[in-house]
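Dear Dr. H.,

I hope your travels went smoothly. While you were away I took the liberty of generating a structure for the chain from your last submission, since the lab meeting agenda had it listed for discussion. I wanted you to have the full record in hand beforehand rather than looking at slides cold. The sequence, exactly as received, is reproduced here:
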Amino acid sequence: MKKIIKTLISLFTFLSIFLLPIFFIIWQSNIFIPQNPTQEIPELSESTYRKYQSQTLGFLLNKSQLPAEMTEFEVSHMEDVKNVFVVSMGVLFFSIFLITFLVFKIKNKHVWQAFKKSSILAILIIVLLLILSLFNFENLFIYFHEIFFPQGNWMFPFDSLMVQVFPEELFENLAISSLVISFILALSLLFFSFYKIKK
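The corresponding predicted structure, in token form, is as follows:
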């Protein structure tokens, strides 16, 4: 039983380390996502650009409808994005709930050993993803979309509003930011786990 509990703690801690920064960035998008266009977009004024961006992000949080300027293809993709977003949020909240419940239920070093294992694994994967993001983000971006959006409705013309408002460079910066936050979380948890195990 202890082995099963430790495995569950390790698994859901690992998931939380990766998911929590992603949702933090989305919830604090005004900090992480530029409010002004980095290039001139003929179809949009700066105020319309911000509105388009705000509505698109707000759609994920059930705060707004998608912009009227979106094509049917873009709407289809954003609906798929929202489905992934909702499922991921459910996984995150369930993970945090389960970890909290098990930690208070067990209250011994087995919990911290599970935290240590998950944080070490997370750090190794984060370092690998950071290297890929820095040197070959385009392929990483493609693989991610092929896994989560196999229906293929994520590929848009380079001059589409979706690509101009949310260019690949923006996703690269957000991915690196998310991974750095995940790395800090995992490293902090690792040090704290060593402290609790030795205590």
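Two observations you may find useful: The helical segments are 2-27, 29-32, 46-60, 72-106, 109-148, 161-165, 168-198. The mean pLDDT is 87.

With kind regards,
E. W.
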